[in-house]
């Protein structure tokens, strides 16, 4: 598992996600363009590697905050698939999806024109994290105004989930993505941050602020194809191999299909 | 319309295209504006708050730019310091640095664990990230080079002749600065300051990376607009209009100070 | 008749033989670009020395050297009893500490100040001196105007008045009469012709008639050297 990228690289990832332009170039005859929420950056890399090695089709990943990417798709960005932490965003994008979801009337020749939509692709839990170098904390510290607390902004899935779970907190900065929160903690510029469990698992610079059990409200990822070529890729995401990769990265994989 | 005799048609056409290119986005913005609901949108707390933060941060940054930038411009133009070219390149660096990179660099320098920042915290209990002061630092960082370049250029162009005459008349260097150099520099200082202030007002990347994003404290109009764009596009347009209006409100009345006058 | 305000009087010393000391004593070399200026020169109080020569000979450089805007490579420059330049950093007295007045070729008036403010700019000037100079050069009506409202002749008179108001021991004039109207030239000449009151003066000119009219001596400067001076 790819652990402990240096902090500078984390910040560069933040830069990339802010402009939603990070991409992984993989040679293939026709590459797919896949938009992924930034919290899926690490696992998406492994998923697309696996997909490319089995199908021979390359994937270009575009990483960013879920709603930032949704706005781009809404404005016509050429994505083949969209993996998001906010399933509601997919509803807004109905006009980009080719037809209504699968019904019994589907025949074979229509199969590849029907978009694949998967809800409950994976589940991620929110966790209150601290820099590994910092002291252990207690739940009461969340409301301590003298400590620097960062979280995602409202409208970003991790921000909405944090608000739903914790209510009003003395937050010192509303970051545009979970990755930005991770960056703050990794640099020890913040004492506490509300991030995903997968971030804590992936980054040795972060640790749980205090022992926490997976709790909901949590983040449920959804995936949708936005073009015929995206269908096989999205279908692959429900395969056993994909679910195995998701679990390895710390996600709770969705139900088998 | 009669074409001026010394203006080739091709030049006029290209110039017209350039004007269209620059004004089209602004016109599109105005066209999208929710004019009917605008009054309510503008009264929203988040808009008023962002406006307040933006004005405070940009004006404070402009003040610091004036105080720090004028002596620097003067030294670069008049004093033969060692490595002058190197210093000049370093001064211009924030202009070419992508703002987010600049903000990241500021974090490494002045953040809680930064090169200098850690001592600020340890000795003076001063933290800059997540504070309005931090937003001012970020804005000053990106705006200062604009002012220095403008004023230094003016000093180089105007030359030292008058200052030399003044010194032969018995005025010591400080008097020369006060009575000759600075009064003649006022137009260039105004131009540089307008440019720097406008830059500070529009700053986004360095602010959000270094100072963070907190309503009422560090969320300037650009930050608020960026956030609104994803969840509430109408509010984003309203915020953009506010930015536009504020810029025009300051730059138009002062244009005789900073636009080259006929 | 125009009156020059009283200039600095030679220091009377009853217990010494009254041989006046030179206001200016120069013997040195200065290099500016390609030009090497090698001059030995003495000027007494009240003396007006004309400096003539072809373009590029170094006449303006000589004036700038005396003014303190160009430095000696070696040699010595004394103004009064003070050594103001001996080629070293420590021995160099800058322009603002020398008691000189310089009227450059381009006049270089301060256009953000009025005529009166220009003339009175020097910290060494006094309101009385300024007034009498404005009168002597017929500038009273222009006192409140800006330099860009003045004609060429008027501006030249302002420049001369400004330098004289600074109460200089040594007056340096760089082609003051070139392209000047007859009236202005007459007034300036009248002022400079007052032997009892004028300071020691170096006058760079292209006009042999002017040199003949005003000068006690004429120096011919060619290629950085005064005619008759043997090469190094």
Description:
The complex is a heterotrimer of chains A (257), B (262) and C (232). Chain A has 257 residues and is of the alpha/beta class. Helix content of chain A is 34%, strand content 21%. Chain A has 2 domains: 129 residues, 3-Layer(aba) Sandwich (D-Maltodextrin-Binding Protein, domain 2), CATH 3.40.190.10; 83 residues, Periplasmic binding protein-like II (D-Maltodextrin-Binding Protein, domain 2). In chain A, α1 packs antiparallel against α7. Chain A is globular, with a radius of gyration of 18 Å. Chain B is mainly alpha-helical and 262 residues long. Chain B has a domain of 160 residues: MetI-like (MetI-like fold, Orthogonal Bundle), CATH 1.10.3720. Chain C is an alpha/beta fold. In chain C, the strands form 2 sheets. A 6-stranded mixed β-sheet of chain C has the order 6-7-8-3-9-10, with helices on both faces. Chain C has a 4-stranded antiparallel β-sheet with strand order 2-1-4-5, covered by helices on one side. The radius of gyration of chain C is 17 Å and the shape is globular. Classes of the chains: A alpha/beta (257), B mainly alpha (262), C alpha/beta (232). Chains A and B meet through α1, α3 and β7 of A and α5, α10 and α11 of B.
Please count the helical segments of chain B: 13
Number of strands of chain B: 0
H/I helix tally of chain C: 6
Order of helix and strand elements from N to C terminus of chain B: HHHHHHHHHHHHH
Structure in a nutshell:
The complex is a heterotrimer of chains A (257), B (262) and C (232). Chain A has helices at residues 7-19, 41-55, 66-74, 87-92, 108-111, 157-166, 178-186, 197-202, 230-236, 240-248, and strands at residues 32-37, 59-64, 81-84, 117-124, 126-131, 149-152, 173-175, 192-196, 206-208, 219-225, 252-253.
Which key terms come to mind for this protein?
heterotrimer; A: 257 residues; alpha/beta; D-Maltodextrin-Binding Protein, domain 2; six-stranded mixed beta sheet; five-stranded mixed beta sheet; 34% helix; 21% strand; B: 262 residues; mainly alpha; MetI-like fold; 0% strand; globular
């Amino acid at each position: 598992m790819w652990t402990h990228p240096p902090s500078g690289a984390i910040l560069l990832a933040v830069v990339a996600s802010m402009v939603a332009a990070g991409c992984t170039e993989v040679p293939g005859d026709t590459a797919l363009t896949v938009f992924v929420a930034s919290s899926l950056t690490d696992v998406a890399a492994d998923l697309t590697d696996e997909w490319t090695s089995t199908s021979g089709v390359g994937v270009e990943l575009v990483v960013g905050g879920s709603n930032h990417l949704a706005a781009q798709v809404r404005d016509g960005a050429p994505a083949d698939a969209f993996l998001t932490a906010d399933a509601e965003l997919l509803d807004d994008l109905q006009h980009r999806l080719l037809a209504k979801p699968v019904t019994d009337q589907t025949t074979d020749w229509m199969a590849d024109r029907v978009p694949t939509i998967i809800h409950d692709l994976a589940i991620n839990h929110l966790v209150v994290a601290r820099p590994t170098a910092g002291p252990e904390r207690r739940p009461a510290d969340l409301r301590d105004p003298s400590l620097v607390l960062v979280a995602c902004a409202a409208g970003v899935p991790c921000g909405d989930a944090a608000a739903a779970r914790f209510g009003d907190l003395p937050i010192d900065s509303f970051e545009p993505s979970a990755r930005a929160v991770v960056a703050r903690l990794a640099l020890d510029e913040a004492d506490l941050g509300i991030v995903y469990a997968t971030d804590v698992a992936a980054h040795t610079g972060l640790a749980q602020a205090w022992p926490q059990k997976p709790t909901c409200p949590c983040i449920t990822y959804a995936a949708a194809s936005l073009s015929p070529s995206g269908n096989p890729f999205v279908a692959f995401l429900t395969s056993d191999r994909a679910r195995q990769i998701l679990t390895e990265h710390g996600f709770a994989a969705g139900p088998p299909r | 319309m009669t074409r001026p005799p010394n203006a080739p048609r091709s030049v006029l056409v290209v110039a017209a295209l350039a004007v269209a290119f620059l004004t089209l986005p602004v016109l599109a913005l105005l066209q999208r504006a929710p004019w009917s609901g605008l009054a309510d949108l503008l009264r929203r707390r988040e808009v008023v708050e962002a406006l307040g933060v933006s004005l405070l941060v940009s004006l404070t940054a402009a003040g610091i730019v004036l105080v720090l930038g004028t002596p620097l411009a003067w030294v670069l133009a008049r004093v033969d310091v060692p490595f002058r070219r190197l210093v000049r390149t370093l001064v211009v660096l924030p202009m070419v640095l992508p703002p987010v990179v600049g903000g990241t660099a500021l974090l490494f320098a002045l953040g809680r664990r930064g090169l200098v920042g850690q001592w600020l915290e340890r000795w003076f209990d001063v933290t800059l990230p997540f504070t309005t002061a931090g937003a001012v630092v970020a804005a000053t960082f990106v705006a200062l080079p604009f002012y220095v370049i403008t004023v230094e250029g003016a000093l180089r162009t105007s030359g030292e002749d008058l200052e030399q005459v003044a010194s032969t008349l018995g005025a010591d260097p400080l008097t020369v600065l006060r009575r000759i150099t600075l009064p003649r520099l006022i137009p260039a200082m105004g131009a540089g300051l307008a440019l720097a202030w406008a830059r500070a007002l529009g700053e986004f990347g360095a602010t959000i990376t270094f100072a963070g994003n907190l309503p009422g404290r560090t969320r300037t109009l650009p930050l608020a607009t960026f956030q609104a764009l994803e969840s509430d596009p109408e509010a984003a347009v309203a915020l953009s209009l506010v930015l536009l209006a504020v810029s025009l409100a300051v730059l138009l009345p002062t244009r005789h100070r900073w636009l080259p006058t006929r | 008749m125009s009156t020059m305000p009283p200039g600095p009087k030679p220091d009377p010393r009853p217990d010494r033989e009254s041989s006046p000391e030179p206001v200016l004593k120069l013997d040195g070399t200065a290099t500016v670009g390609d030009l090497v200026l090698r001059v030995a020169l003495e000027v007494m109080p009240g003396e007006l020395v004309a400096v003539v020569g072809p373009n590029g000979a170094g006449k303006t450089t000589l004036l700038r050297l005396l003014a303190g805007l160009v430095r000696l490579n070696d040699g010595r420059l004394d103004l009064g009893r003070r050594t103001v330049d001996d080629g070293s950093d420590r021995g160099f007295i800058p322009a603002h500490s020398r008691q000189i007045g310089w009227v450059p070729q381009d006049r270089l008036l301060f256009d953000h100040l009025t005529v009166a403010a220009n003339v009175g700019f020097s910290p060494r000037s006094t309101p009385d001196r300024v007034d009498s100079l404005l009168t002597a050069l017929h500038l009273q009506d222009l006192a409140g105007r800006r330099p860009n409202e003045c004609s060429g002749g008027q501006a030249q008179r302002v420049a001369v008045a400004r330098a004289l108001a600074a109460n200089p021991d040594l007056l340096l004039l760089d082609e003051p009469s070139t392209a000047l109207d007859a009236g202005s030239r007459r007034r300036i000449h009248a002022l400079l012709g007052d032997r009892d009151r004028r300071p020691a003066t170096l006058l760079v000119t292209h006009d042999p008639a002017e040199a003949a009219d005003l000068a006690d001596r004429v120096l011919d400067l060619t290629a950085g050297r005064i005619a008759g001076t043997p090469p190094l």
